[in-house]
Design brief:
The complex is a heterodimer of chains A (about 300) and B (about 325).
Chain A: E1 5-17, E2 23-36, E3 40-44, H1 51-58, E4 66-71, E5 85-88, H2 100-110, H3 115-128, H4 144-156, E6 162-166, H5 174-189, E7 193-198, H6 201-207, E8 210-215, E9 218-224, H7 225-229, H8 244-258, H9 271-285, H10 300-303
Parallel strand pairs in A: 3-7, 3-8, 5-6, 6-7
Antiparallel strand pairs in A: 1-2, 1-4, 8-9
Helix pairs in contact in A: 2-3, 3-4
Chain B: H1 2-19, H2 22-41, H3 51-83, H4 85-90, H5 96-128, E1 131-133, E2 140-142, H6 145-169, H7 173-192, H8 211-234, H9 239-254, H10 256-259, H11 268-276, H12 297-323
Classes of the chains: A alpha/beta (about 300), B mainly alpha (about 325).
Chain lengths: ~300, ~325
């Protein structure tokens, strides 16, 4: 395993057994993976394809039936290695009676963070995930999206080297989704590595460098995302608005040279960008907000070199 | 050092999380109110001043304690594994051993808080109950109405204050009420020392049966043993099977000496069963309290040694089971 490899999985098999120890489900079947330092690695697949099982094996929460797993050069059951890992579970597994501030303080203590560092990080993370106004309300009262934000904040409290995000945008509104994606890009710029498990194709497409597609526990495809998605038989030309006459001339010229009629359409803004612009305008005149609010940027400590 | 900090953090969280659950507060309040009402409900003393109030108080302490111990153990381990909070914590640099033992320590804290409330209520209830008075002002049977009134009022005052703190300071109602209930009971105990049983102001004297303190300590030790069994079972089972098995162990343990103890000398099998099932009679020595007697602290220490050894053995089994458990 090289210095640059943060996760290496070879021939991983996971079989869940019933009460009598008979094989019930083969959740992961002969999986090979390799995640490099400083990249966002996408684990893509439908529900039940083995993404979360693979992640739980990486974290030592489940035992592999067969295969070899190394995370940051160590066995997943090595408690010490978890000091460098941040994990956001598929569901935001939080203590309902604690407030976001208490939750982050609790996780900060588990990492042995000193009181001053903990306080600084907690306030920055709460600000970053847009929950400053709800920092002292019990998490049990939160909507799924708000709880997800607390879950994301706890995954970053230790400023981890490797961040494992299981469906990080599920339950989040479009603002939250964009913030999570921006956050991932900012973390990778600082040399962090991220494993992103999702069935939301747009999320993976937006941020991932490499992707593995799982189905029925087996690897179906692997590669750089732009290479996998590129249509190498076609090209796209974009230009400023043309008059009808010029357009007609251009199309006939292209047809003459290539022998085929090109398709013409207007580029449209994607819905996510349009939505964010609308919210930005509304935000300027907003008076009071009870849910999560849109915030700018990343917690300061996560930006430090 | 980190392990100790993690242990402390997890134990505190377990205790806080448990006392913030409404059921814990409800059971403790119900227990205190029932103990407080015992002197009113018991019309006959059968010639033994305070015995029925004392025995009933300790029995209520034991029974309600078993419910709290089983429920808290199940909810803090079985439920955490089911809902995934255990996975979230174990994905951090926390070993399973620290997690499991800290959970138990958190439950023990809750048991101690509950036992403190129940023990103070029993002390007060015994003081309140009808007794023959030889004081010059009153000769005859006297019930301490003033202390009884304060004892029954304490939970309501605690709830009212917790409500106000929740309204104005946003303090969580359940845990605040739990803490205030204990504080109010201590206040009632201390204030009652200024009054005679007839309600007249007098030089400070607590006028309590101090033997109840060591007996309550014995009941608390029994509850610690039950907690260790409950948390070990919770590493594999849900709340209902845990409750059923704990109840069965409780009943078998009450009859352990009769069912297995007498045959243990002749049969290895009975000896093994007798050793495995906790003998509650070791912790239940009510007769000693008669005529102002008390369980000697030396005996309490022996019982504590038995409880700690038994709990440690059971916890080892639990640890073994939990360390192999997969967190789905």
């Amino acid at each position: 395993m090289s210095e640059q490899t943060v996760v290496e999985v070879k021939g991983l098999v996971k079989v869940f057994k019933d009460f009598w120890q008979r094989p019930k489900v083969k959740a992961v079947d002969n999986l090979d993976l390799s995640v490099q330092r400083g990249e966002i690695f996408g684990l893509l697949g439908p529900n039940g394809s083995g993404k979360s099982t693979t992640i739980k094996i990486l974290l030592g929460l489940l035992n592999a039936t067969e295969g070899d797993v190394k995370i940051l050069g160590h066995n997943p059951h090595d408690v010490k290695v978890k000091e460098k890992i941040g994990y956001l579970p598929e569901e935001s597994y939080l203590y309902g009676y604690l407030t976001p501030r208490e939750t982050l303080n609790f996780y900060g203590r588990l990492f042995g963070l000193e009181s001053g560092v903990r306080k600084e990080r907690i306030s920055q993370l709460i600000e970053m995930v847009g929950l400053s106004h709800a920092a002292d309300r019990a998490v049990g009262e939160f909507s799924k999206g708000m709880a997800r934000r607390v879950g994301l904040a706890q995954a970053l409290i230790n400023d981890p080297e490797l961040i494992i995000l299981d469906e990080p945008t599920s339950g989040l509104d479009p603002i939250g989704c964009r913030q999570v994606k921006d956050l991932m890009l900012a973390l990778v710029r600082r040399g962090k590595s991220i494993i992103l498990s999702s069935h939301l194709l747009a999320d993976v497409e937006d941020v991932c460098d490499h992707v593995t597609i799982l189905y029925n526990g087996k690897k179906q495809a692997y590669g750089r995302i732009n290479e996998l998605l590129e249509d190498s038989d076609r090209i796209r030309l974009t230009m400023p608005e043309l008059s009808p006459e010029k357009m007609k001339t251009l199309l006939s010229e292209i047809k003459k040279k290539t022998g085929s009629t090109p398709e013409v359409d207007r580029p449209s803004m994607n819905l996510e960008r349009f939505f964010l612009e609308v919210v930005d305008k509304a935000n300027e005149s907003a008076v009071h907000q009870t849910g999560a609010v849109k915030t700018e940027g990343v917690a300061e400590y996560l930006n430090r070199q | 050092m980190l392990r100790i900090r993690q242990f402390y953090t997890l134990a505190v969280l377990t205790a806080v999380e448990s006392i913030r659950q409404p059921i814990c507060l409800l059971l403790t309040t119900a227990c205190v109110l029932l103990i407080g009402l015992t002197p009113v409900l018991l019309l006959h003393q059968f010639g033994e001043d305070g015995k029925l109030a004392r025995d009933s108080g300790l029995a209520l302490h034991f029974v309600f304690g078993i419910f709290i111990a089983c429920y808290t153990a199940s909810s803090c381990l079985a439920r955490e594994m089911r809902t995934g909070t255990a996975s979230a914590v174990l994905s951090k640099p926390v070993s399973r051993e620290v997690f499991f033992v800290a959970k138990f320590a958190g439950i023990v804290v809750v048991i101690f808080m509950f036992s403190s409330c129940a023990a103070i209520a029993t002390l007060l209830s015994e003081r309140v109950s009808m007794k023959f008075s030889m004081e010059p002002a009153v000769v005859g049977y006297v019930t301490d109405g003033l202390t009884g009134g304060m004892l029954l009022l304490a939970p309501f005052v605690a709830f009212l204050l917790a409500g106000l703190l929740n309204y104005y300071r946003k303090r969580p109602f359940e845990s605040t009420a739990f803490g205030l209930l204990l504080a109010m009971l201590i206040v009632v105990l201390l204030v009652s020392g200024f009054f005679e049983r007839t309600g007249q102001f007098s030089p400070y004297d607590l006028r309590i049966h101090t033997g109840i303190i060591s007996m309550s300590a014995m009941v608390t030790l029994a509850l610690v043993v039950i907690s260790s069994i409950a948390i070990t079972l919770s590493s594999r089972l849900n709340i209902v099977p845990t409750m059923i098995i704990c109840s069965a162990v409780f009943l078998l343990g009450l009859m352990s000496d009769y069912l297995f103890g007498q045959k243990a000398l002749d049969s290895t099998l009975f000896l093994v069963i007798f050793s495995l099932i906790p003998d509650w009679q070791n912790f239940w020595t009510l007769d000693v309290l008669k005529d102002g007697g008390a369980v000697p602290w030396r005996y309490v220490m022996h019982a504590a040694f038995y409880a700690v050894s038994y709990s440690a053995g059971i916890m080892l089994l639990g640890l073994l089971s939990f360390s192999r458990k997969e967190m789905r």
